[in-house]
Amino acid sequence: MKETAEKDITLGDSVAFVWSIIGRQKAMFFGMLFCASVFAAVEVALPAIGKALFDGIAAYGTTDEIDAKTVWELVFTLFGFLIGFWIFRYGMYFLWIPYSAAYMRKIVEVGFTRVQQFSTSWHNDTFAGVTVRNITRGVTAIDGIMETCLTQFFPTFMVILGSAAYMAFTGHPIMGLALFVFLITFVTITGTISLKVVAPRNRAANEADSHVGGLVADAITCNAAVKVFGAEGQELERISAGLDTWQQRKMRAWYAGATNGILQTVLTVGLRAGFVFTSVYLWTRGQASLGDVYFALSITAVINSYLRDFGTQLRTLQNNINDIDPLAAYMKMTPAVIDAPEAKPLAVTEGGIRFESVTFGYKRGLPPLFHDLSVEIPAGRTVALVGRSGSGKSSFVKLVQRLYDVQGGMIAIDGQNIAGVTQESLHKSIALVPQDPVLFHRTLAENIAYARPDVPLGVIREAARDASIDDFIMSLPEKYNTMVGERGVKLSGGERQRVAIARAIVAARPILVMDEATSSLDSVSEAAIQDALLKMTKGRTTLIIAHRLSTIRRADMILVFDQGRIAEQGSHEQLLAKNGVYKGLYDAQVGGLIL
Ligand SMILES: Nc1ncnc2c1ncn2[C@@H]1O[C@H](COP(=O)(O)OP(=O)(O)O)[C@@H](O)[C@H]1O
Ligand SMILES: [Mg+2]
Tens of pLDDT along 235-279? Predict the structure, then answer.
């Protein structure tokens, strides 16, 4: 399955995923099953001892076989079992504490790791809020599944099977069989309704729920835009529309669940009535003892208490499995960009980049953006990419980072096809200063040192000085320990760009990409960092997307993009002499700006 929506997930996929998490500690898992089996056995043993006790008391004084001593022994055995029951029960809970903490943390790690592998396209197309909820809901869901199975499902089956076996062995095989048949009927009917009617409705409700979550997250993340346009009402309307769907679907799901619950109650009450009637009837005919009647009463009470919970728990289990579905889908999806099976780390020696007949489009089926594009970026040189907005400059540098796979041809760095090296090594060879840098909600020092978290503050400050942001940072009350706000919102665009430049300086990688890295700086601020930029590009292959003539002129080579083609390439003077696209852009310049 490609990176698509999580529609075609089966129960088997979700179960397999859950097992892949909880099955990591098999000894723990089977230890818990053992404890659960023991206390299920005790649940059956207690009414059985009770029956013996009743029969003993009824027989006392009428025959020689039973005496008071035996009756007292039975009473003590009963208490012994009762204590044993609670010891095992709590033993299981104590085992469970480290086990559940381990699988709950694992599911976050596994889910998060997976999501990080997905391509830039996937992240662009997916609400971050939805992804976050999918992962966090998985945590409670997996714990809920374990709780339902280990404290409800599994013991219920054991209790019913144990009771049926006990009845068969104590001279009531028909009643044992009836109990067994009841179990099968009950599970089939309520199971079918839960899976076929309740579950799809729950799933639909969950989808609506995630959708609302996504809308809320989107509106809150973009709160700045909402405020600026006074669009609070408009956002509320969008959310209200989502909530309408959610409300309808949730109610349908709840009604179906409640109806199923009624049916389950009717079945369990019927079982109890049937058993008690039958045992009393057999007693009137002398075919059952007083103890048998007691056993029928108390075992059906035990079964009822389990099955009453079984109804609710089955629905909870269903919800929890629905909550696991998106994570199971993540595991089933193949990330769009993956490391080749024998991918080796990229070894950058010189840093030369070559595009060979590259064909690439964002959407298959539409005409590609780049068609048969070939170009050579010389090692260690600075190459400026110019062209109108939308001509493909950013896409070009994204391909160098392999954020997308090309559909034809190849891109090589120092002769190594980037599709054949590990993505991590590729990304670690390139430092990027984007146009609109995203900063982490961490301190300025942490943001600048992001690529090399261990560097001393001295290195961080030197980079900041080069990016002429040190004075600004030192003027803040908390200096380098200032938190920058979510995505860096507490800084201006120009400040964020300078932090991003400092971050790239600290990263010190052999290839540098600057995508309109200084677009938010005024010319005075830009001039202030020119020296640093020169220093930064020295000895590195640099791709620089810029509109300012001052920046472009200093490049060793200029590539002029026009609708996905490289229309012209050469030095500033050569290109001007050509009197082509570049000349057109140049002529349209205002005060040193190329369009
Ligand atoms: N993630 C994307 N999905 C689909 N189309 C895209 C995406 N990013 C860019 N494009 C399209 O590709 C073309 C080139 O865009 P881009 O490389 O960003 O241009 P530039 O950086 O030169 O302004 C544009 O038509 C743009 O709309
Ligand atoms: Mg761009």
Answer: 999 999 999 999 999 999 899 888 888 888 888 888 889 888 888
Are 47 and 179 a contacting pair, CB within 8 Å? no
pLDDT in tens, 47-87: 888 888 888 777 766 655 667 677 788 888 888 888 888 88
Contact between 198 and 315 (Cβ < 8 Å): yes
Angle at CA of residue 345, ends 111 and 510, nearest 5° = 105
Q: State whether the beta carbon of 190 lies less than 6 angstroms from ligand 1.
A: no
Kindly report, residue by residue over 439-486, the tens digit of the pLDDT.
Answer: 888 999 999 999 999 999 999 999 999 888 999 999 988 899 998 876
**Residue pLDDT, tens place only, 521-579:** 777 777 777 777 888 888 889 999 988 777 788 889 999 998 888 888 888 888 888 88
Residue 355 is classified by DSSP as E
User: Which superfamily, per CATH, for 11-332?
Assistant: ABC transporter type 1, transmembrane domain (1.20.1560.10)
Taking a C-beta distance cutoff of 8 angstroms, is the pair 474, 464 a contact? no
Domain ranges of the chain: 11-332, 439-508
Supply the DSSP symbol for 151: I
Q: According to the 3-state scheme, what is the secondary structure of 123-147? A: HHHCCHHHHHHHHHHHHHHHHHHHH
Q: Is 395 in the pocket of ligand 1 (CB under 6 A)?
A: yes
Contact indicator for 177, 277 with CB cutoff of 8 Å? no
Q: What is the rounded distance in angstroms from the CA atom of residue 386 to the CA atom of residue 392?
A: 10
Question: Looking at the DSSP assignment, which residues form a beta bridge with residue 569?
Answer: 559
- Residue 388 CA: nearest ligand 1 atom is 22
Residue nearest ligand 1's atom 16 by CA:
392
Residue with tokens 């048998």: 292
Tokens 């070939």 found at: 374
The CATH number assigned to the domain with range 439-508 reads 3.40.50.300
Q: Please indicate whether residue 389, judged by its CB atom, sits closer than 6 Å to ligand 1.
A: yes
Which residue, among 414, 428, 391, has the nearest Cα to 541 in the 3D structure?
414
- DSSP letters for 343-354: -B----SS--EE
> What is the rounded CA–CA span in Å between residue 111 and residue 142?
12
Residue 534 burial class via C-beta count within 10 angstroms: exposed 0-12, middle 13-18, buried 19 and up: exposed
Structure tokens at 71: 């009756």
Nearest Cα neighbor of 436 from 489, 392, 511 is 489
Say how far apart CA 574 and CA 154 lie, in whole Å. Answer: 80
Ligand 2 centroid, distance to 394 Cα (angstroms): 4
DSSP secondary structure code for residue 479 in this structure:
G
Integer angstrom CA distances of residue 510 from 354, 427, 505, 507 = 15, 11, 11, 9
Q: For 288, left (φ over 0), alpha (ψ -120 to 50), or beta? A: beta
Q: Are the beta carbons of 328 and 321 closer than 8 angstroms?
A: no
- Two tokens, residue 509: 């990688």
CA distances from 194 to 6, 89, 134, 175, 256 (A): 21, 29, 22, 28, 8
CA of 300 to the centre of ligand 2 (A): 72
List Cα–Cα distances, 551 to 352, 386, 538, in angstroms. Answer: 21, 11, 14
